[in-house]
Specification:
about 280 residues, 2 domains, 12 helices, alpha/beta, single chain
Length: about 280
């Protein structure tokens, strides 16, 4: 699925208070959720801004990796419940709005997975509900060692069904079910043990650590990374024999890329490779 396909339902943002900012350095695009007073909730405007940024990055060959971070004490509190509650006054009690909102949110999560560049989350504070979904949708995650995660919908009568999709694709089923059924917060150590995050760092260092990891990945061939990221998500949904057949076809194409020829030649000749990204 292309980025354009996954983001087709996401509307444009309002020019008035952008909830997201982008900073590019050394081939890494830093996307910062910048609505700290609202706990960086995934409002309509935030989802639209994320969708626009991801669509732009997908076409930007100067970007080799992405870091998703947030301002303030909370990474992301999930959907904007005030915004959602306001639509209960709609003639259909909000049914059409809720369906559209969840579709738009799913499009953004899928766009992260479909993005050619790897995405590293830098998590501080708490990541709850769709905020936890956002972390799980990223390819990698670095968290402060005091960060906490949860899918608390069950506590307010609303099972976190859409966050469940990303969560259950990241961690073991029983860990996922415990989070979903109890709604309890888990600490960073458990998140690391469960496989929801890759690395823990001291509070305040998560963004720098995520950027360092992204820059290290950015030094690799973008052709190899693009082949590999797409193949990773595709193969894991296939039966074993089909996965091997698919992966072999991908690797054959990758072997014919100029960067694979250069990389193998450089290894044999004991020199550093010069990537052409083709």
């Amino acid at each position: 699925m292309s980025i354009a396909d996954t983001l087709a339902a996401v509307p444009s943002t309002s020019p008035s208070a952008p909830p997201l900012r982008r900073e590019d350095t050394d081939g890494v695009a830093l996307l910062v959720l910048d609505r700290p007073k609202a706990r960086n909730a995934l409002s309509d405007a935030m989802l639209a801004a994320l969708g626009e940024a991801l669509a732009a990055i997908a076409q930007d060959r100067s970007v080799r990796a992405v870091v998703l971070a947030a301002e303030g004490p909370v990474f992301c509190a999930g959907h904007d419940l005030k915004e959602m509650t306001a639509h209960r006054a709609d003639p259909d009690r909000g049914r059409a709005y809720f369906a559209d909102l969840l579709s738009r949110c799913a499009a953004v999560m899928q766009a992260i997975v479909a993005l050619p560049q790897p995405v590293v989350a830098a998590v501080q504070g708490t990541a709850t509900a769709a905020g936890c979904q956002l972390v799980a949708s990223c390819d990698l995650a670095v968290a402060a060692d005091d960060a906490r995660f949860c899918t608390p919908g069950v506590n307010i009568g609303l099972f976190c069904s859409t966050p469940m999709v990303a969560l259950s694709r990241n961690i073991a089923p029983k860990h996922a079910m415990e989070m979903l059924l109890t709604g309890d917060l888990i600490g960073a150590e458990d998140a690391l043990r469960f496989g929801l995050v890759n690395r823990l760092v001291s509070p305040g260092e998560e963004r720098a650590a995520a950027l360092a990891l992204a820059r290290w990945i950015a030094e690799k061939s973008t052709v190899a990374i693009r082949f590999g990221k797409a193949a990773f998500y595709r193969q894991r949904e296939l039966p074993l024999a089909d996965a091997y057949q698919y992966a072999a076809a991908v690797m054959t194409e990758n072997m014919l890329a100029r960067d694979a020829e250069e990389g193998i030649g450089a290894f044999v000749e004991k020199r550093a490779p010069h990537w052409e990204d083709r």
